[in-house]
Amino acid sequence: MKTLKDVISLKFKTSExxxxxxHGEGQQGDYIxxxxxxxxxxxxxxxxxxxxxxxxxxxxxxxxxxxxxxxxHSIIIExxxxxxxxxxxxxxxxxxxxxxxxxxxLDYEITFGGMPFSGKPSSNSRKNFKxxxxxxxxxxxxxxxxxxRKKLEPSNVGNLSFSCVELHTVPVFFNATSYxxxxxxxxxxxxxxxxxxxxxxxxxxLLFSNFADDLxxxxxxxNEGKVSVHINVTQVKKNRIDISS
Length: 245
Known about the structure:
Elements: E1 2-3, E2 5-13, E3 19-25, E4 31-37, E5 40-46, E6 59-63, E7 73-80, E8 83-88, E9 91-96, E10 104-105, E11 111-112, E12 132-138, E13 141-142, H1 143-148, E14 204-210, E15 216-223, E16 226-233, E17 240-244
InterPro entries: ConA-like_dom_sf (IPR013320), Laminin_G (IPR001791), Neurexin-related_CASP (IPR050372)
Domain Laminin G: 1-164
Organism: Oreocharis arfaki
């Protein structure tokens, strides 16, 4: 496929911060990859290199943040030669690709939700997308409908289901005065806790617990944007442990 113009659009939602949304590459050094990295949207594009390999055509653009919130997000990529409009949730970013070529010259297939292992360094460290997509449209082709009607050859690899499974996690919102108190587990040698959090505030207490029999306490807090763990243990010489990250 050798194109001067491309229009690619889709909607997605995920709770994962990493994953390839779609990918295509060609024999002339061309490639296009749209992926999530650290919950941001990254578009990597190269319209090819010349025979000497002296023209640096790689272009990378990052947009958005916190896109792993399991809400629907819409993407539109419009390309005319080297001019690109990248739209994420109605926010438009215009840029021009590096290099000197106008055509995107791809091989016979593009992939959505991941990329095949090609032996190239770019393909071995990227995660497949995990989540839901809908309304996938590639240059006028309704990919979602074609895939559902099994009109794509070659078709899907792995398990695809044409429904979107909702997460069963329940978030909890805290204001400045609220907290959640749960019963402790006495007579346990192990103290273990895991949770995800998101906040705009640089300071705050995340967790506090006293140990039984007045043996001390543990505290996890945010201090100037860093997470700190404080463990106070009585009846030992080194009675305080502080970890910051």
